[in-house]
Amino acid sequence: MRIRFIGPLLAMVALVSACAGQSDATDTRAGSTATTAAAAAGVASSDVEWVEHEAPADCKCADGSAFTYWSRRADPQRVVLFFQGGGACFSAETCSFGSGTYKQTADADQVTGNGEQPPAGIFDFANEENPFRDWSFVFVPYCTGDVHIGDNVHAYTDDLVVNHVGFRNASAGLDYLVSEFPDASDVFVTGSSAGGVPSPLFGGLVSDELPDVEVSVLSDSSGVYPDNPPVNAAIGALWGTFNNVPDWPENEGLAPEDWSIPGLFTQAGLHDPEIRMARYDAAYDNVQKMFSAMAQVDGGDQLAVVLANEAQIEDAGVAVHSYIAPGDQHTILGRPELYTLEVEGVPFIDWLTRYVEGDDVEDVHCVDCISAADE
């Protein structure tokens, strides 16, 4: 990746670059060649298989277990880079293995159908309404507790050492996309929950690596977390988020307290104004409410925080489309409700499809946003 890392740990450059490079990546499932050939031959998109790839050894999960990522080769011109969600941690209590606050091992059950539930939402490739049914995918699992942007090994106690190396893992997926789909015309960078956080940042990195590609970003359910400088610096130090700030002119002079979640939209959007940006949130998302309280960034009324974050991004000069649903359900892209949700007369699937196709969609915001549980 053509990135210069800034911050105090410049020595990490060689480590991250070695991890991100894909010369050592190998398919760990048989049939990857056959799958690629089948896709090229026009086999139905729903029949294209997922292929697992080993990442270099320096890419790993929080507990030190191996990290792998997945791909699905369909249309090589159109590629989705998807970041999986799965919580976060920032203390000995929340980061304790088995705490339940974040995923600690890598899996792709969400997309491969190996879990209890069949793939749904944008991963339901048999659904003709799915705007991504014929797209290729690179799926980046999540298992580091750092919303895919960390690069630090932190000892919370003598017995609890956590590998917050999500940026290395995510970079492995990015580099695979760049090497395997160099002639892509469209790349859609997205993710749900913790996976929604890094989407704008990696949209900017995709734009750097593939400057002729049209890049679109959609962050699913991560809009409640505000720009809080003390929290940015404190949690960022635990995770090492500032070790991998891209060497963009727009980032000149930034300090760790400036590197925020809404700021990722701002900095990437200012870096490349051609990147299309969008966000989805439920107005009173119960999971985001819980993590806001845990991180001590609960700003009061959630909907007001979502709107304030959107205003902050747009006031900085970055246009962002948004769809805000009523209620408290967390995430949409991997759920069956992707095809049934309707807000103010606008079905989400129609809004998403038009956005994917390049339309300048209007914002859709709920009017009666309170869920039954909050009444």
Report the principal-axis shape. Answer: globular
**Rg from alpha-carbon coordinates:** 19 Å
> How many DSSP helices?
11
* Number of strand elements: 14
The whole-number mean of residue pLDDT values reads 89
Helix content: 25-40%
What series of H and E elements makes up the topology? HEHEEEHHEEEHEHEHHEHHEEEHE
Which regions have little confidence, pLDDT < 50, spanning 5+ residues? 1-41
Structural class: alpha/beta
**Strand order in the largest sheet:** 1-2-3-5-4-8-9-10-11-14
CATH homologous superfamily annotation: Alpha/Beta hydrolase fold, catalytic domain
CATH architectural grouping: 3-Layer(aba) Sandwich
Please report which band the strand proportion falls in: under 5%, 5-15%, 15-25%, 25-35%, 35-45% or over 45%.
15-25%
Could you describe the largest sheet, including whether it forms a barrel? 10 strands, mixed
User: N-to-C terminal Cα separation, in Å?
Assistant: 49 Å
Number of self-contained structural domains? 1
Q: Can you give a write-up of this model?
A:
The longest helix has 15 residues. The N terminus is likely disordered. It is built from eleven helices and 14 strands. Helix 1 packs across helix 5 and helix 8 runs parallel beside helix 10. It has one domain: Alpha/Beta hydrolase fold, catalytic domain (Rossmann fold, 3-Layer(aba) Sandwich), CATH 3.40.50.1820. The radius of gyration is 19 Å and the shape is globular. Strand 8, helix 6 and strand 9 form a beta-alpha-beta unit. It has 375 residues and is α/β, with parallel strands linked by helices.
